[in-house]
Predict the 3D structure of the following.
Amino acid sequence: MRLRGVYFAVAAGSFRRYATYRIATAAGVFTNTVFGIILAYTFTALWSERPHLGGYDQSQALTFVWTGQAILAAAALIGGGFQEELQERIRTGDVAVDLYRPVDLQMWWLSADLGRAAFHLLGRGIAPVVVGSFLFELALPVSPLAWLAFLVSVTLGVVTGFALRYLFALSAFWLLDGAGLNMLSTLLSMFFSGMLLPLTVFPGAFGEVVRALPWAATMQVPADVLLGQYEGARLSEAYTFQAVWAVVLMAAGRALQSLATRKVVVQGG
Amino acid sequence: MAEPQADTDGVTETETASAAARAVPAPAGSVRTGAGPATRNGPARRDPWDVPPEGLLTRLGWGVRAYCFIAAMWIRSTMAYRTSFVMMAAGSFVSSVLDFVAIMIMFSHVDSLAGFSLHEVALLYGMSATSLGLADLLLGSFDRVGTRVRDGTMDTMLVRPVPALAQVAADRFALRRLGRIGQALLVLGWALAGLRLEGGVWALPLLAVTVLGGTAIFGSVFVLGGAFQFIAQDAAEVQNSFTYGGATLLEYPPTVFAKDVVRGVTFMIPLAFVNWLPALRLLGRDDPLGLPGWADFAGPAVAAGCCALAGLAWRAGLRAYRSTGS
């Protein structure tokens, strides 16, 4: 019971920590908005040539763009968040201190990342969508239930994203400098999350594979949930897809973590 | 688009400081051991660091030299983690490739986007990405100015006898960014192979000058962004809107965007000169704003203006700088 309080405190502290940087948040909102506008124009051009591409009409495609910009920071699709911090602690040997703490390493960082994601969803997610809905015709749902379904999906997506990045972060135990793998992690998540182009537009068997990968759970699925692509019972299919990946990847993270802490000599004196 | 936040290097600040101290010789007037080689061996080679440089050209040459020293130091430092370097150079290449794959997927569904074929878009893409890639390679660390102001390491740069601009520009010089330039040049080459450009023998020189001018324009935006961080330290991300965002915008034909957006990137932030205007002439198309013909060749002049403006802004930023005092 008390341990749960600790994780909650870590999450709350992380939320407050990111909330401190107000100018950085404003800068992020500005950047997300600019990218949203650019993408929205290109999507408009594409969907006016091919209406109903990927199962979206034009306003749904535009909503997809702005949902993506809203989730971008929260799901840390372009990196950032805890990854570099944990790797730096591994490189300097500070991770030894973390391992001594009477809390679980993975849960500790998950709590911190959830706190960060909560702030980024509120601080960096809402404003771009509001601007986007003024500039373009969006197909945002009116029903509060649809928004609730979206929030659940985003949370599952953030956990999946965390589990993926945790695996990449732990690579620092072997490589010391994780920058190369971080870059790989970023480019995979940018392309396979649907951030550049909805995964439903990807052609043929390649599209089938891409939509089954864990990155789809971080952005494509939450956006589809918001767009009402999963009706009724199919919503639970979407959740199951996300939850299965989250559990599998978290388990893989634990396995790698125990391997790392047993086999690898911690750096530092 | 993937690059900005992924830009963390695995080398710590302490390594930076000590290595930079080694790379840059001691300033004039500092304590020296021994009597100095000049008195012992007769009129020996004059130490170029001994005399404070005068005149604009001398200062410029000096800054460039210092830039090369620091960049070389960073290349050596990167090579300490060779696996990571190879992965990052390859990653830089692949992430740009995926960027273009997204455009190719778009064109797997349509024959033309806002009236432009895939080869024509590839020309725009190649020009814009090459310019940004070069600017990013040469001046890619200006987003760290805010961090340096906040943690006080900007002071270290100001006490060294090298222009702060050269130091910030060469800071964390990342050779892996050649990966992105390589991909951009491949796309550009592929586009040129599949297109018949207007303008005869002048087509390729115009292309080359435009890409270099575009590099200068993007470079100016980097410097301007750096200067802005003296005022708003945490606002580093804003410049991504104009550099990475701008490059993404320029990858698509101007007909995709609303007229007001095109006007904005022509007259307010002159990104249209990076590729749009000259490329439209090379493709034999009218520009949507109906500018006079000479505007297509104004790139170098616009670039020079941008550089001057960025230089002034940098000086103003540096003057406004207050140390953290700790």
